[in-house]
Amino acid sequence: MFTQRLFQHFEELIQPTGPVVDQTPPAKLLPFFWHFARQARGVLLLLLGAGLVTAAMDVAIPVCIGRVAGLVSTHDRATLLQDEWPQFAAMAALVPRHSGYDLLAVLG
């Protein structure tokens, strides 16, 4: 099954039972966090990047709705698409049309 292979790949990126560094973790909060986060730095950075992209796309939805409402209220109906099609095309490309869960359901 496709989803099982996909998830197995991500599960193998971090080895939770790997070799243990014989070092006492720091007592303060931020150094304590980074002591353990350093073991999966690349995966955490990718996760942070994916979260930022997702948040930006989530913010884009109401911004685009507001922009469409503004365009509709200020332009003539007959020429709206002719005049503002580049903005509509950019908004269509910016706003996600499917979630990842929809894609996984279709694939497998």
Structure, explained:
- It is a single chain.
- This protein has a domain at 48-108.
- Helices cover 70% and strands 0% of the residues.
- It has five helices and no strands.
- The longest helix is centred in the middle third of the chain and has 34 residues, at 41-74.
Q: How many beta-strand elements?
A: 0
**How would you classify the quaternary structure?**
single chain
Structural class by secondary-structure content: mainly alpha
Residue stretches low in confidence (pLDDT < 50, at least 5 long) are: none
Question: What is the N-to-C succession of helices and strands?
Answer: HHHHH
Number of helices: 5
Largest sheet: none
> Helicity range of the residues?
over 70%
Q: Label the overall shape.
A: elongated
Q: Rg, please? A: 22 Å
Binned strand content: under 5%
